[in-house]
Design brief:
Length: about 120
Amino acid sequence: MTTRKTPSHQQSSSNEPSGAEKMFGDFAPALVSYTDDVLFGQVWERPELSPRDRSLVTVSALLAGGNTEQLTFHLAKAKENGLSEEELIEAITHLAFYAGWPKAMSAMSVAKSVFRG
């Protein structure tokens, strides 16, 4: 596997592979590139929305789509981007009425695991 330089907001050290690269590096290198370079390297860096707002939108979209597997990463990222646990819990509670109760309950289970370990 070749180690590519990942966007600075994803690195904890200068040459550490991204999460996508760790998961799919040799298996799906194009998906890794699109994830690291386009999604996190370009889309997340656009100035029209703050990282905090992007995180709230992303958590909401993941919940609405029932994509709880990605919520673990994105709830932690949302906290890094300035959202509090209370705000995220409230957003999940609010979304229960728009996205569906089972999806909100599943998302809240993930949030509890992320926030309370």
